[in-house]
């Protein structure tokens, strides 16, 4: 038996099962929804992500983001016709739905931040427009072989929306679900995590009746727009603007735990401080900042850095960055003079996964898998998370390992990373067994 054989065997025993399709399936019964940003293919250098880079074994569900709405006739449309339907003679739609053969559920997302709310508000306000949209969506999903639709209207009642969007969104969801029954299409929605937006946008108990899963976008709680360094996705906080309060509120509003999917951010929010700290070792949370953050080299979006961009910066320029951990929010940060990035590292991800398990949620989703370290450029930061089969996708591997790891979630007397240490000790144990085997 070779080293590879033993490594694979131990990996399967600890973390998953080997499927008939030839890849390791996570050894847990939770949902892991992976959004794939279609525009990631156009990023520069190491940031360019094509579907050939996708490792579907880390997910149970895939969502291709995004399709759009044609406001001239109220039908669903591709936002990138060449990439979606023609690229490589087949198009990304067909490439995505081919993953269904490996046992994954593959949905098409519609909407997103750039699409706004205005056109969706107008479409949903008319029964005739809703019928037209729904009929076009059924044909679209059938044509390209998707399993379902993910609604990403951001957001009913705001950003160009109207006060009556809340009821119309419910009508749209109900009518879509009825139309989908004959085709066994799934219907999910990505919703805001901000209580004020939730109140304006969603009739939680009613939409829960018709949605298969509710994807909670539990990030973007804060950013440079606050003019102060604050966590992008705090697990908990004193002001109540955090993951725990969001999930508690949705459960109180009538959302079934078994339909809630906790969103995890594979990116951080960036800030430019108004003044350079006297010491780089300072915890930057709460420091005043400008109202605009700096860009990452691949995503090129102000105030935003993908995890792959963050970890590469830490690996390539370790002398420039000072890293730290904010206990209150369970958030990692890195400081370089007047530049700060606040993000979720592996420790933060494990803490959130354990919270989702404790609350008995359906599982987790990631926005988005294309900003994980899919090219394994940052292995020196997480060498203990290689899991034998390569050093790429450290976040996805961490998430699945934490879901499969039957450890007791931390209580108030434990640090957020206490079970992380236990998980890593399990991995170290398997590594030691492998080393012993080959020393014989």
Automatic annotation (TrEMBL):
<dbReference type="Pfam" id="PF00704">
    <property type="entry name" value="Glyco_hydro_18"/>
</dbReference>
<protein>
    <recommendedName>
        <fullName>GH18 domain-containing protein</fullName>
    </recommendedName>
</protein>
<dbReference type="GO" id="GO:0008061">
    <property type="term" value="F:chitin binding"/>
</dbReference>
<keyword id="KW-0326">Glycosidase</keyword>
<feature type="domain" description="GH18">
    <location>
        <begin position="30"/>
        <end position="406"/>
    </location>
</feature>
<dbReference type="GO" id="GO:0005975">
    <property type="term" value="P:carbohydrate metabolic process"/>
</dbReference>
<dbReference type="GO" id="GO:0006032">
    <property type="term" value="P:chitin catabolic process"/>
</dbReference>
<dbReference type="GO" id="GO:0004568">
    <property type="term" value="F:chitinase activity"/>
</dbReference>
<dbReference type="InterPro" id="IPR011583">
    <property type="entry name" value="Chitinase_II/V-like_cat"/>
</dbReference>
<comment type="similarity">
    <text>Belongs to the glycosyl hydrolase 18 family.</text>
</comment>
<dbReference type="InterPro" id="IPR001223">
    <property type="entry name" value="Glyco_hydro18_cat"/>
</dbReference>
<keyword id="KW-0378">Hydrolase</keyword>
<dbReference type="GO" id="GO:0005576">
    <property type="term" value="C:extracellular region"/>
</dbReference>
<dbReference type="InterPro" id="IPR001579">
    <property type="entry name" value="Glyco_hydro_18_chit_AS"/>
</dbReference>
<keyword id="KW-0732">Signal</keyword>
<dbReference type="InterPro" id="IPR050314">
    <property type="entry name" value="Glycosyl_Hydrlase_18"/>
</dbReference>
<feature type="signal peptide">
    <location>
        <begin position="1"/>
        <end position="22"/>
    </location>
</feature>
<dbReference type="InterPro" id="IPR017853">
    <property type="entry name" value="GH"/>
</dbReference>
<dbReference type="InterPro" id="IPR029070">
    <property type="entry name" value="Chitinase_insertion_sf"/>
</dbReference>
């Amino acid at each position: 038996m070779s080293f590879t054989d033993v490594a694979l065997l131990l990996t399967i025993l600890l973390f998953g099962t080997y499927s008939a399709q030839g890849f390791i399936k996570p050894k847990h019964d939770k949902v892991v929804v992976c959004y794939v940003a279609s525009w990631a293919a156009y990023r520069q250098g190491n940031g360019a992500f094509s579907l050939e880079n996708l490792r579907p074994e880390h997910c149970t569900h895939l969502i291709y983001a995004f399709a759009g709405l044609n406001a001239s006739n109220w039908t669903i449309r591709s936002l990138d016709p060449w990439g979606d339907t023609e690229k490589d003679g087949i198009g990304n739609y067909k490439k995505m739905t081919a993953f269904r053969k490996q046992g994954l559920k593959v949905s098409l997302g519609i909407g997103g931040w750039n699409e706004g709310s205005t056109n969706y508000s107008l479409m949903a306000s008319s029964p005739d427009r809703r019928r037209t949209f729904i009929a076009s969506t059924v044909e679209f999903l059938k044509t390209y072989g998707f399993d379902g639709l993910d609604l990403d209207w951001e957001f009913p009642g705001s950003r160009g929306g109207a006060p009556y969007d809340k009821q119309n969104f419910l009508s749209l969801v109900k009518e879509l679900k009825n139309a989908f029954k004959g085709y066994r299409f799934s219907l999910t929605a990505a919703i805001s995590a901000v209580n004020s937006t939730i109140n304006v946008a969603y009739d939680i108990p009613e939409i829960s009746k018709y949605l298969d899963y509710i994807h909670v976008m539990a990030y973007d709680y804060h950013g440079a727009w606050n003019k102060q360094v604050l966590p992008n996705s705090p697990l908990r906080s004193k002001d109540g603007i955090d993951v725990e309060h969001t999930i508690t509120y949705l459960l109180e509003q009538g959302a079934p735990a078994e339909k809630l999917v906790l969103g995890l951010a594979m990116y951080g929010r960036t800030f430019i401080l108004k003044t350079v700290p006297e010491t780089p070792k300072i915890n930057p949370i709460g420091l005043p900042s400008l109202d605009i953050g700096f860009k990452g080299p691949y995503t090129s979006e102000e105030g935003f850095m993908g995890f792959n961009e963050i970890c590469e910066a830490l690996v390539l320029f370790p002398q420039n960055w000072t890293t730290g951990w904010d206990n209150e929010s369970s958030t990692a940060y890195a400081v370089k003079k007047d530049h700060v990035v606040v993000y979720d590292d592996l420790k933060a991800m494990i803490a959130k996964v354990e919270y989702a398990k404790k609350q008995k949620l359906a599982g987790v989703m990631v926005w988005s898998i294309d900003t994980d370290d899919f090219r394994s450029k940052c292995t020196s930061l997480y060498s203990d998370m290689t899991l034998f089969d390569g050093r790429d996708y450290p976040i996805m591997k961490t998430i699945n390992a934490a879901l499969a790891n039957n450890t007791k979630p931390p209580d108030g007397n434990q640090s957020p990373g206490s079970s992380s240490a236990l998980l890593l000790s399990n991995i170290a144990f398997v590594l030691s067994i492998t080393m012993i085997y080959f020393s014989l």
